[in-house]
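Next comes this protein:
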Amino acid sequence: MTILTVETLCSEAAIFSATESQHLEPSLYGVTDGKAVGTYLEQKFRNYLKERYEFMEGSSASGIDFPELLVDIKVTSIKQPQSSCPFKSARQKIFGLGYSLLIFVYDKRDNSINHTSTLNILHTVYVSAERTADFQMTRGICNILDNEGNKDDLIAFMLDRNLPVDDIEANNIADEILQNPPRQGFLTISNALQWRLQYRRVIEIAGEEEGVIAVYRS
């Protein structure tokens, strides 16, 4: 069995997306729960890969689908392209989630004549780990650094943006930013008990920015 790599994961995701877009699935007919659709597609893609490659499967402990590759799968409807994600630290909003995303964006169509459903995959996008920070947060920080901003400016900006940190943590993050400036992120990450990731921007810019790859487009 061949070992799965990020490159083969993306190329197989493109093939899978094209095939799945033609598939008539009775079990999804009438299903409106996005989580059920996501589980169906993730499991089907994982089983597709298992027939062809060797890889370590994710567990609830690792929290991501391909821990060896540091890639997590996200499945979302084009109507509202977003999903939740575990909150580990406020730093994720600035320095990225710590892993890459493979995002399947579908448009679900039900056929009332034969009682089947088709998941038309419109976009499959790979976002590398260093691009998974929040767009506005990283853009603001980069602007501050470009304009000779200092630690106080960074702390004030983080607190103004309601980053979920206390003063000590804001201080520590500001020091880290000065030593290791973050790269521009492209997700929109909303504060909540779980991060709420929104993907409209990465869908729009896929293929135009380094680290945001248009794996498949229908």
